[in-house]
Amino acid sequence: MYNIFQTASPSATDGWVRIADTNNDEKKTGPESQGNKGSVVPWVGTAGNALPFGYTGSSHLNWAAALHSAGDTYEVSTQNALDRYGFKAEIDTGAGAWQDADGPTGWKHQTDIGLIKADEDMWVTLKPSVVTGTGFDIQNFGITVFTGMDTNTGNYSHHGSWNNATKPFTSDNPFGTTGLTYLTHSGTVDADNGLSFLALAGQIYSVYLGGAGVGRWNANVADYKLEISTAANTSPVPVPAAVWLMGSGLVGLMSFGRKKEKTA
After folding, report:
1. Residue 99 CB burial class (10 angstroms; 0-12, 13-18, ≥19)
2. What pTM was computed for the model?
3. Which of 17, 76, 150, 192 is the most exposed place for a label (fewest CB within 10 A)?
4. 99 forms bridges with which residues in the sheet?
5. Which fold has domain 2-237?
6. pLDDT tens per residue, the chain (264 residues)?
């Protein structure tokens, strides 16, 4: 599922969920909407072209993936959007979007945001890579995964930083959002080294992705491909302590019974 919002410049913020004309110049833009005014931007791949998973937040949102069965592999990319829906979605990020080389800090402007929802409990592994020939070669990416999705319906500004001393990637809601609880992160993710987490059935997860420490947020913008692979949750079901106590009690009774029979 992809947002159809398009920018005029690769370094401009993409993924706006609404557009508006608040300065009365007869041109609707994403920044003018502040994320909560004007018209909702249609999506491809969703029922009725609505926002995915009932999203109500005001922060920008680029893509969403519904994971149906463990063992399947999915792809998020401009080419995937073109192949599936005939639309060239803007799936790109800056070399320093997750963590700027001059910071260190991340920047809202070029950090891409996606949503993941699994139909069953499964392990999810994320492996991003640069699409050859589309821009600067981002050596590695940073990804932060949050449980939940943005529910803040107030004004949203794409200007500003995150992933720093005041808004670390290990905190909840670093974009000034609400509804996000930090789950996990990695600043060294690429096509060979993925970030894995256990996705619970029905739970929505937010993925914040960008280049990590290899350039500036507003330069060296490149298209990326995100491979989402899944695996069955094979963790053993924990046995309640009460069951173990009952079991040990039964063993004790059985031993006592055998002892009596032997000495009778």
Report:
1. buried
2. 0.87
3. 192
4. 212
5. Jelly Rolls (2.60.120)
6. 999 999 988 889 999 999 999 999 999 999 999 999 999 999 999 999 999 999 999 999 999 999 999 999 999 999 999 999 999 999 999 989 999 888 789 999 999 999 999 999 999 999 999 998 887 778 899 999 999 999 999 999 999 899 988 888 889 998 989 999 999 999 999 999 999 999 999 999 999 999 998 777 777 889 999 999 999 998 654 555 554 444 555 445 444 444 444 333
